[in-house]
Write a structure and sequence with these properties.
mainly alpha; 2 helices
Amino acid sequence: MSVIIILIIASIVVAGGFLAAFIWSVKSGQYDDTYSPSVRILFDDTKPKKPSAKTE
């Protein structure tokens, strides 16, 4: 029976650590921009420069 109590306490400590890490990441601004990552693939890249006639 004492093993169950140790496991419950350990799981609460681990859950508290994950909660603290999540709160820290929210406060540091990691989730501020939610629009750009979803449409980044749709943006055009810079166009490559055309070779000039002098290079031939």
